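User: I'm preparing a small set of examples for a lab meeting where we compare how different chains pack in three dimensions. I only have the primary sequence for this one, and I'd like the structure in token form so I can line it up with the others. Please keep the answer compact; I'll paste it straight into my notes.
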Amino acid sequence: MKFCSECGSTVTTAVPAGDNRPRHVCTACGTIHYQNPKIVTGCIPVWAEQVLLCRRAIEPRKGLWTLPAGFMENGESAQEGAARETLEEANARVRVEQLYTTFNLPLISQVYLLFRGSLEDTDFFPGEESLEVALFREEGIPWDELAFPVVRETLKLFFQDRHSGVFVPRVGDIRWKSDRRGEYQVRMLDGERG
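Assistant: Understood. Below is the structure token output for the 194-residue chain.
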């Protein structure tokens, strides 16, 4: 950040009085600009024994499969965002149900909120951000072609819970191993490790 969004003057990095972190502070009007994690919301859209996935038409991870999800917009709830993203990416109407997984990704300053949901019908087709959309049974999930660790971990938990018959909301962190590209560690709030 170079300029203040309040007055247009330059900003500097400083630790404001009463704070403990460097922030962007306007040199003219004194406005403190907080930069906080982005919230990503999405859905596990289910039809009978199948889950709807989208093949990405955009970077990052173009051509790989994902659950419909994206950044929350101002003025909407997390549930509304999950339904909107499902409609935008798959032209699918979904009834959003339980908040299922919350994953923190500190390295990229994102928090994912993924909900379980039921498709209202099977009249879906790719949106602008998807090359294709399809329903998958557990045995057909393209595990090696999933775009993001959050999607992989959420689907693993979903199918594990479906087998047990009890869906348990979960919270965890995903941290990348700095020495190995693509490798990550999952630590769940309940102490489980992935």
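A couple of notes for your slides: The chain has two domains: 1-35, 38-188. The two ends are 36 Å apart (CA to CA).

User: Perfect, thanks.
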